[in-house]
Amino acid sequence: MGYLVETTGRLLLPFDREGAAFEALTVAMAGRDGWFDPEDDEWQVSSLADLAPFAATSVEREGEWLVLATDEEGDPKWSEQATAFYAELAKWVSQGTVLVSGEDGVEWSYTFAEGGLTQSGVNGWDGSYEPFGSPVEEEAPVEALKRRGWFRRR
Predict the structure, then answer these.
(1) Alpha-carbon distance 39 to 99, whole Å?
(2) How many CB atoms sit inside 10 A of residue 70's CB?
(3) CB neighbours of 51 closer than 8 A, spacing ≥ 6?
């Protein structure tokens, strides 16, 4: 049960910011529904790479870049925690794009820039145009599907 996804992308996150980003992500994800529980001793999570599977992805570092891909070894299902992962990551990443493809063929992406995060397309899991937004009630005009800004850095 759950909504399976495939993920691909690259995000610029300087190595010296990764530890602080990881700490912020664990807090953001712990407050949402999903499989990550920071109190669970069975699943030791001490890095961004350990945390990523709870957001339905895998992460490898290539220099200053994070390379995201489908978590082939796990069970890559979307949840509120996956949404929280990308929304919080926007505060730490300065550029990049992540494409998510749902089990039903729906695709959406997140584009990261100094200004924050922009979602393009409708999230196939919750039917929203923006992270934690309301589900779409009806077909939207084509221009609404292209890009909707949501998250800005503080």
Answers:
(1) 30
(2) 17
(3) 22, 25, 26, 29, 36, 45, 85
Question: What distance in Å separates the CA atoms of residue 74 and residue 56, rounded to the nearest whole number?
Answer: 8
Q: How many domains does the chain have?
A: 1
Residues recorded for the chain: 154
- The upper half-sphere exposure of residue 113, i.e. CA atoms within 13 Å in the direction of its Cβ, equals 6
Structural domain including 145 reads: 3-152
Given this model, what pLDDT does residue 148 score?
Answer: 52
For the record, the structure tokens of 91 come out as 């505060």
pTM over 0.70: yes
Torsion angle of the four alpha carbons 118, 123, 126, 128, in this order, in degrees rounded to the nearest 10? 50
Radius of gyration, CA atoms only, the chain: 15
pLDDT < 50 positions in the chain: 154
